[in-house]
Specification:
By secondary structure, this protein is an alpha/beta fold. Helix content is about 30%, strand content about 15%. The protein is globular, with a radius of gyration of 18 Å. Bound molecules: adenosine-5'-triphosphate and magnesium ion.
Length: about 250
């Protein structure tokens, strides 16, 4: 991949994400992490090489098929890309509405997911009135709400504190446990190590794979002790349950 006539940003990136796998994508700033994600969510075409998404060759897939492939991918953009004229609730509900769900079917799920990411008090807030970390959590809720087959998250913990970063990691791990393939671009070395998940590392346009160090099992990762009073809309445990419903986190 190259931008215009510039040198290739990505040039040796042969890899496959097995269905149901969980990987981090690392590399220095400018190494091409966001560019690689753009190729995967079909925002850019490769200047050479081949991409298969869910078994479909992207180049030969018909134009009509691309939106359907794209819809199976949830993306947390590095710059959020929230719709500023829609409330937090409506931003998260949008992918479900596009998929044809009725408000009665998704109202509770959306509210509970927003509560889970700590935005239970801000359901009707407009994105421009949210803090950076709140916007990030909203973008994450929107990306995961319809249980995508593939979740791509670009620096999803860049604007939140350590405890919230672990909480977000647990959300991703849980989503992965329910079958979503996960790829997370991250600078957060601590988070990457803690997850124990394998790493795809970009350097000089080349991708190398490293197995996870498994310093801690992600599912047993517990939040750091908190000294502030827990908020009513926060949970201390990470267990979203097996139901097709993000609200099953009550013990
Ligand atoms: N739209 C663009 N037009 C031209 N060059 C671009 C564009 N987007 C990115 N680049 C260049 O491509 C290279 C890779 O950028 P990319 O955003 O993929 O890196 P990154 O690994 O995501 O970095 P960061 O960690 O800072 O987010 C950089 O040299 C960047 O300047
Ligand atoms: Mg980037």
């Amino acid at each position: 991949m190259r931008y215009g006539r510039s040198p290739e940003v990505l040039k040796d990136v042969a890899f496959t994400l097995a269905p149901g796998s969980f990987h981090f994508l690392t590399g220095a700033s400018g190494a091409g992490k966001s560019s690689l994600l753009k190729l995967i969510y079909l925002a850019h075409r490769p200047s050479r090489g081949r991409i298969e998404l869910f078994g479909h060759d992207v180049e030969s897939a018909s134009r009509n098929d691309l939106p359907f492939l794209r819809r199976r991918v949830g993306v947390v953009f590095q710059e959020f890309r929230l719709l500023d004229h829609l409330s937090a609730f409506d931003n998260v509900a949008l992918p479900l509405r596009i998929a044809g769900a009725k408000p009665d079917e998704y109202r509770d799920d959306v509210a509970e997911l927003l509560t889970w990411v700590g935005l239970g008090q801000r359901l009707w807030a407009m994105p421009p009135t949210l803090s950076g970390g709140e916007k990030q959590r909203l973008a994450i809720a929107r990306a995961v709400v319809n249980r995508p087959d593939l979740l791509l998250a670009d620096e999803p913990t860049g604007n939140v504190d350590h405890e919230m970063a672990l909480r977000i990691l647990r959300l991703f791990v849980e989503l992965n446990r329910l079958g979503t393939t996960v790829l997370i671009a991250s600078h957060d070395q601590d988070l990457v190590r803690r997850s124990g998940m394998p790493v795809l590392h970009l350097y000089d346009g080349k991708l190398t794979r490293h197995s996870g160090e498994a310093r801690a099992e992600p599912r047993s990762t517990r939040p750091a002790p908190r000294d502030e009073t827990p908020q009513a809309d926060e949970q201390s445990e990470f267990d979203l349950g097996d139901e097709n419903d993000f609200g099953e986190d009550e013990a």
